[in-house]
Structure formats: structure tokens, C-alpha cells
Amino acid sequence: MEEREKVVVEIFGEKHVVRGGESPEHIWKIAHEVDKKMQIIAQRLPQLPIHQVAILAALNLADELEKLREEQESLMQLIESEESE
Asked: What is the pLDDT of residues 62-82, one digit of tens each?
């Protein structure tokens, strides 16, 4: 069975225990990205409750991920079309 790392991270001023198969450095990096997004949103919209800040951060990160997936798919199609020529 795979060893799961237990890492304490801080997101938006709260400590969280995260377990994952990745290195502690990777988990801290991801947590930092979430924290950074939440801080930016909270600065722009200070009246929002924390749960709405978290939802908007999740939506922003999901949007970035989807755009990267679409870009990757386009690049893969381009590579495949060049290989078939």
C-alpha cells in the first residue's frame, strides 16, 4: 500500500492536515496556490463570507485547469496531425 504523507498547511489563516501520496513540498505548493487565490479574491471582494471566497477560488482554479487541458488537447492534435503528414 502506498505511503500517504501527512502535511500541515495553512490556507486563509487556518491550519489544515492534508494527506496525500505526493511529497510534502508538492502539497505545500498546492496549498500556497489555493491560499494565494483566496487572498486575492478576499482583497477584491472583502464583504464575501469565507465559504464564498473558497468557492470562487475553486472556480478560478478549475477554470485555469480546464484552459490548460484544452491547450494540451490542441497541442496533441497539432502534433498528431504533423506526424501523419
From this structure: 999 999 999 999 999 999 888
pLDDT at 2: 60
Asked if residue 38 lies in contact with residue 11, where contact means CB atoms within 8 angstroms, the answer is: yes
Q: What is the pLDDT of residues 53-63, one digit of tens each?
A: 999 999 999 99
- Grid coordinates in use for 7? 502535511
What's the number of domains the chain is made of? 1
Residue 13: burial class (beta carbons within 10 Å; 0-12, 13-18, 19+): exposed
> What pTM did the predictor assign?
0.83
Range of the domain at 10: 5-83
How many helices and strands in the chain, by DSSP H and E?
2, 2
Q: Are 3 and 25 within 8 A, CB to CB? A: no
What is the DSSP secondary-structure string of 19-50?
EESS-HHHHHHHHHHHHHHHHHHHHH-TTS-H
